Amino acid sequence: MRSTEKSLCESEVFEEVYKSNITSLHNYIYYKCGTKEVAEDIAQDCFVKLWKDCSNFALDTIRHLLFKMANNLFLNSISHEKVKLKHQKLTGDNNHVTKVDPEYLLEEKEYLEKMQTAIGNLRDRDREVFLLNRIDKKKYREISALLNISIKTVEKRMSSALKQLRQQVEGF
Amino acid sequence: MENKEFEVLMHKYIEETISEEEFVQLKAYDAFASQRKLLEAASGFSAPALDIEKSYEEFMAKAPQKDGEWLRRPTMKRYYWGIGIAASLLLCVLLLGIYRFMDSSRTFATGHGEQLTVFLPDSSEVLMNAGSSLEFSEKKWAKERRVHLVGEAFFKVRKGEKFSVVTEEGIVRVLGTQFTVSQYHQFLEVHCFGGRVSVERKGIEKTLSKGEAIRQIRDDTIETWSFEQKIPSWKNFESSFRDTPLSYVLEAIAKIYGVEFVVKNVDVHKRFSGSFSNKDIDVALEVISNAMDLDYSKENNKVVLRKK
Q1: What number is the ipTM of this complex?
Q2: Nearest-CA neighbor of B194 among A11, A172, A153?
Q3: What pLDDT is recorded for position B77?
């Protein structure tokens, strides 16, 4: 039984689907390709496809489908860069950190910079799972549904990411 | 090397399903402190911010219109070539004028029965109906996409910053792609054929989606309705009115055929619904007279309407 009566072809419904999913879709591709423009483009292109074929999709399976389309489009695109994320403490706005030992600050900065590089060095599939969990605050279950992988696989990739990050950041 | 138990506990910790006992166990592992630090630090990273509204507008411009209208150019039938040539000549003359007055704004106008397609500096397209004029400043275009319209026109707007159509009867702002604006004295009507359009008149703002139309006459209540057509009927040289006061219907006919109306004993506020081709004024007058229970007589450019 279809749980939805609303159709994706109605522009209001589509707009809502667009606005509630575009950010996570964009982030997901960004975690793979590291280029904002490419991520935006691919995310939009997914919706263009969805729109062209709107009558063929049920609303409740769309999220997983979008991620799948995004992944395919990503594999077809050529421009990959090293993923370089911004950290709020690396962007200079330290006003909220009051009276901290400057040595500690420097250490922390070094730590975060190392981590930034290490995240870029992760395997794509580990990185996307790790960042979907950390930045987008997605539970394992959600990630497993979006990427159509088992929770076990999500766990494996999380562990693997953590292990590699630790090796690179702390040197063991 | 971390063992299985540590990993299981770690996942529970990440998923926030860990019990207090398990947490005590987990803390006993050497690796925990550094992995916790990694996890916490990772949460502070972020992907580049995305402006959802802007992204959606870009998408709207990218997405194909369902009826394929966006791709189709307005085609002119054989017998409108004359009009086309006249319009092109007018365009040439105007272009020439622009060379002379680079700084001044550009104005386009259509005469009786004429239609004119104007391309704006960003290749947005305006199809003007008869008896209308359009003005915009090429110099200020980069800063602000704004045109002044008197009369009626169909717009296809390229993606980009906000696009406004300013008329004496109100301002129409585009958030999307295709719409018509019909402006007469004390009368503003807007049809949205794609994307979203916002209409502001006398301090009240309304947003239209595809297939929605809005109208306000004088200060009367705002009328809204939805329609099925994919393109404005006048684009095919047909006039169509929905529940429109007779005075505005006559004004539209006057623009198409260049005639003058004299009404005797007729209530011009009475509303007319119907459509007729723009090729034969007698047919138009016949349709209106029948619908509104009137008699008409035509002499040269003067049409007299009176009550039956």
Answers
A1: 0.81
A2: A11
A3: 46
